[in-house]
Structure formats: C-alpha cells, structure tokens
C-alpha cells in the first residue's frame, strides 16, 4: 500500500501484540511483526495478515533480550520500508517469586525484555520519526507500572521503568510531532492468563469460572478481563490525529484496579 505508514509491534505473534497488529493493519498500516516463532511459522503468519488486510507485512524473529538483534531488526525493516512510523513496544515475559528467592537469571531476562528492549527500540526508531517530524510510540506497560504486587519485583520494576522512560521520550520530542504514551492494562484475556486460572482451579479444586473470578477479584473491582482487541482500539486512537496533543501519559485499562 503506497504512502501507508509502517508500524513495528514487538511480541506480536499472539495475544495483545497480535490484536494490536491486526487493528493497525485494518486501517491500512504496513507491519513489522515480531516474535520467537520459527521462520516458516512467522512468514506464514505475515502472509496471512498481508492477504487479509491487503498491506505489506514483514516477520522478524529478533530476540529482544539481545540489543544487537533489535538493531538488526530495524535495519531489515528499513530495507523494506522507509522507516518505522509507529512503534508499539509490547513484548514481555514474567516470573514470580519473593525477592530473596528470585532467580538472578530470570530477573535479568525480565529487565532485558520488558524494559531494556523498549529503550533500544525507541533509540532505533526515533531518528526516522525526528527526520519526518511525525511519529507515534506506544509502550505497553501494565497496571504494575503504576502499582505493585507481591512476588513480582522484576516485572514491577521493569514496568515502572517503562512508564518513566515513556515520559522522557515524550519530553524530549514534545515539539517534534512525535508522541509517546504508555498503556497500562490490568487483567487481559490471553493464553498466559488462562494458564494461571487453570493452576488455581487445579490447586483449589475450583471450576474454571470460580478460579477466574478469584484471580481477577483479588485485585480488580471489575470482575471481567479486557479483550486484547480493546487494547488495539486504544492504540488506534493514540496514533490518530485526535491524540496529537496526548503525550507522556499512562493510560490504565484496569477495571478500576488503580482507583482503589
């Protein structure tokens, strides 16, 4: 699609990232999708999205724990597209344990993927955005970028860092036609969450629905998860002209979690 904008969405082969990518593609945005799939699987997904939405789609398997792979991903994208106009930093991993029991390697991996990759991706994307005086950065943080929970020290530290880094990017580019915002979801219907529900149901001999309600209501007043497509809808708003004055914000989709 000529003259279309190009979006790079990290961690976009499933869940929230894929929903965001599909929403952007539905508006005629070319895509770079990213995830730890085999090349054949990734290319098949890219082709499927391209045919469905009639846009150009490039798959890149960069492991975001490695800065040099992030840099290479942007260089490969520049060979296909003029540059990245919309950057959505979505990729994330999780591990839970008390601080004194937290595995060092898992801590470092969470910081690398959930926080450091956001820095390296913005660093790679900003020069093109600055050159054209237009760009949109949306960092998928978390409700845990605003509040804490036990056993999530690395995740909470990373997501608080993402919120802070988003503010810095917004300040540095406030008059460059570039916005930077963070979205902070609470519970969202994803395969990762389904596994947590299954674990509670098994451990406490509860039905799936009982376990789901227990998981959500422990933190979130609205006992219903957000749909990944709803995150994608907010991304569409943030990349629109209507949101050109919104930058440096942290927007919860958390069922009143942080209202308490």
Summary tags:
260 residues, alpha/beta, seven-stranded parallel β-sheet, 8 helices, 7 strands, globular
Straight-line distance between termini: 46 Å
Secondary structure tally, helices: 8
Low-confidence stretches: none
The number of strands is 7
Structural class: alpha/beta
Rg, Cα atoms, Å: 18 Å
Major sheet? 7 strands, parallel
Strand content: 5-15%
Mean pLDDT: 96
Q: What percentage of residues falls in helices of 4 or more residues? A: 40-55%
| N-to-C order of helices and strands | EHEHEHEHEHEHHHE
The strands making up the biggest β-sheet line up spatially as 3-2-1-4-5-6-7
Shape: globular
Description of the molecule:
It is a single chain. The chain has 260 residues and is of the alpha/beta class. 48% of the residues lie in helices and 13% in strands. It has 8 helices and 7 strands, in the order βαβαβαβαβαβαααβ. It has a 7-stranded parallel β-sheet, with helices on both faces. α1 (15-26) crosses α8, α3 (67-80) runs parallel beside α4 and α6 (191-204) packs across α7 (208-217).
